[in-house]
Amino acid sequence: MSKHIWLITGSNRGIGLETAKQLLDSPENVVLATCRKPSQATALAQLAESAPGRLHVIELDTNDDASVRQSVEQASSIVGDSGIDYLINNAAINEGMGTVSSTMDLDILTREFRVNVLGPARVYQAYLPLVAKSQKKTVVNMSSRLGSIGNNCGTLYTTYSITKTALNMLTYKEHAERPDLVFIAMDPGHLKTELGGPTAVLEVSVGVKGVLNVIGRLQAEDSGKFFSFRGEVHPW
Ligand SMILES: NC(=O)c1ccc[n+]([C@@H]2O[C@H](COP(=O)([O-])OP(=O)(O)OC[C@H]3O[C@@H](n4cnc5c(N)ncnc54)[C@H](OP(=O)(O)O)[C@@H]3O)[C@@H](O)[C@H]2O)c1
């Protein structure tokens, strides 16, 4: 059986954790579950016990060059020549739920930009050699419907929306430069996680199931697009 190797950032909770969980349901998947503090990632440790040899917990702070470099060394030693089939840039923050342009806190915008845009850019650059030598060669940038200008998302969530729109452009540019790889921006839906907040209606398992369905059906011609977890293509 040929293995599919996945790397997920921010996998100690929320969508990242659920993604790791659902992937382990299929015996062909091997998951490199990365997070900032493995020693505190108890849910990941339990998952690793339930799937011996198929879930590897790796320390990775997407904001930190040295941490990303060390994680690449560790990941390389685990995957060898197989590379990484699916790089899931999932880690993000949202500190400014109610922000509007006229009053948004620029320090929040800076912090969110650093994690939500520079993080995926840094991780992509560092992991590109491993992704490029894999079978599937796929990069998924976890975006949000709030990053879609064409969806008329209104005045609120300004700082976070700006970062997700920038992430969408990063996805487009990555695709434009490397047509030999597959890149998508993904909207997982509004899900019940810390980031999704108390008004979210969908269980995290529902959104993640949709996300994995979309990824599982990707073709080369889907690269450079922005998908919802239901498989629709969002306008940029
Ligand atoms: N939930 C939703 O409704 C929703 C909707 C649209 C899009 N999304 C997107 O889906 C993705 C996951 O969101 P979520 O709802 O699962 O959020 P979450 O529950 O708040 O989890 C965020 C994850 O990101 C990690 N993280 C934050 N900064 C990091 C850094 N510098 N390095 C490494 N990891 C870092 C967190 O780790 P720590 O525990 O160490 O902080 C945590 O594991 C995000 O990209 C988000 O924008 C979510």
Automatic annotation (TrEMBL):
GO molecular function: oxidoreductase activity
Assigned protein family: Belongs to the short-chain dehydrogenases/reductases (SDR) family.
Superkingdom of source: Eukaryota
One Pfam family hit: adh_short
Protein name: NAD(P)-binding protein
Keywords noted in UniProt: NADP, Oxidoreductase
Gene Ontology CC: cytoplasm
